[in-house]
Amino acid sequence: MYSNFTEEYKNLMLETENVVKSKGFSEIFPEDVFMRSLELKTGPIYDLYASSGISTKIANEVLSRSPFNLFGSERAGAYTGLSPRLKELIVLSMKIAAGAEKKKAWVEDFLLSLFKANTETWFYQFFDFIGLSPTD
Asked: Inter-axis angle of helices 30-37 and 56-63, to 10 degrees?
């Protein structure tokens, strides 16, 4: 699967997996990948987050609260891999990349998949909570 990703996207997914495992969580959620994407220090994703004032610190604070509760104990358990939600987003990110005639999916395609997926309401709620519209 990762052969269809740019190195940056592949590394983002692998780093996210390592973090999730180290925290003792059972699955990787889309929120986990989003959180790791906040740690990118170059490129258009970094520029987007920096210009919007979105940081790891803000995201940690917001996503640890209700209704998100990303870091709750109910996530603990034996590691099983990618959540079904994340698998759907990865497939969608590859479709987005293919639609743009890219040879590989980029991190940007993953973020676009969060916008396009009807199931990821937390993404819009996150932006609303911090006072931004994801369409800005």
From this structure: 160
